[in-house]
Amino acid sequence: xxxxxxxxxxxxxxxxxxxxxxxxxxxxxxxxxxxxxxxxxxxxxxxxxxxxxxxxxxxxxxxxxxxxxxxxxxxxxxxxxxxxxxxxxxxxxxxxxxxxxxxxxxxxxxxxxxx
Amino acid sequence: xxxxxxxxxxxxxxxxxxxxxxxxxxxxxxxxxxxxxxxxxxxxxxxxxxxxxxxxxxxxxxxxxxxxxxxxxxxxxxxxxxxxxxxxxxxxxxxxxxxxxxxxxxxxxxxxx
Lengths: 115, 113
What we know:
The structure holds two protein chains of two kinds. Chain A is 0% helix and 49% strand.
């Protein structure tokens, strides 16, 4: 399967712990997005990479959140000192350069539960 | 905030056409209408997009009104596998756009046998 993959699929952690999620985009896609989705809501944009450069961060991305995309390949999203409000599905998406500019390919997501 | 308004839920009988409406009365001239869907426990999936002409692909048809203030996604022969939340998104569509999708709550379509 050459789609977007995310690991782990599920993560349960205790409040105050740090967690890290990984996203492997489709190999030729140079653009990568992270979204967060809480129950009953649509996904909310968190951050965007073009190759290895992080070009935009949402105000939702507090200073406890950090994302990287070394060498423009896979990406990681780390949450430090997790809070119960961080419980959500974290989705990664990628797209290639060119048309259609807004066809993003989503991974299955990582479901985070903070106890 | 999302620039679109969709009904929260709809039902459709299996084999019948599902017509999902979306209002986007504040759409600007260079914004496109995109549709995504999200099947339970999966990431969203792109369906179709358009500017002002009607569009059709292997998944669905998109009908955009002449004033572009609303659109309808049509699934011609809905199956149980089409049960999902459908999102209508209005967004600029050019290479310089970063393309951060703004999702609303969407329409939960339930296809019933």
